[in-house]
Amino acid sequence: MESTQIKNKITKILPTVEMPGRYTGGEFNQIVKEWQSVDVRVALLFPEIYDLGMSNLGLMILYDIINKEPNFLAERSFIPWVDMETALRDENIPLYSLETKHSLADFDILAVSLPYESLYTNFLNALDLAGIPIHAKDRTADHPLVIVGGHSTFNPEPIASFIDAAVIGEGEEVILEILQTCAGFESGLENTEKLKELSKIGGVYIPVFYVPVYNDDGTFSNLTKTNPGAPDEILKRIVGKLPPPPNNPIVPYIDTVHNRAPLEIMRGCTRGCRFCHAGIINRPVRERPVDEIIETMETLIPNTGYSEIGLLSLSSSDYTQIIPLIESINERFEGQNIAISLPSLRIESVSVSLMDALAGKRRSGFTLAPEAATERLRNIINKPISDQQLLDTAKEIYQHGWHTIKLYFMIGHPTETLDDVQAIADLSKKVLQVGIETIGRRAKVTTSVSTFVPKPHTPFQWVGVSSKDDITEKIDLLKRETMTKGLKLNWNDPRGTHFESWLSRGDRRLSEVIYKAWQKGAKFDAWQEHFVFSRWLEAFSETGLDPEFYSTRTRSVNEALPWDHINSGVKKSFLLEDYQWSQEGKTRADCRDNCYACGILPIYSDLRHENPGSLWLCPEVSR
Amino acid sequence: MKIQRYRIFFSKTEAMRFTGHLDLILTWERTFRRAALPLSYSEGFNPRPVINLASPLPLGFISSAELGDFWLSEDISQEEVENSLKRSLPPGLIIHHIQEIPQIHGNKLPGLVERSEYTAFLPKEYSGLDLKIDTLLQSTKIFRTRKGKEYDLRPLIHNITLEKGQEDFPSLLNISLFSLPSGTGRPDEVLLALDIPHHEALICRTAIVLKPVEEN
Question: A364 to chain B: which residues are within 8 Å by CB?
Answer without folding.
Answer: none
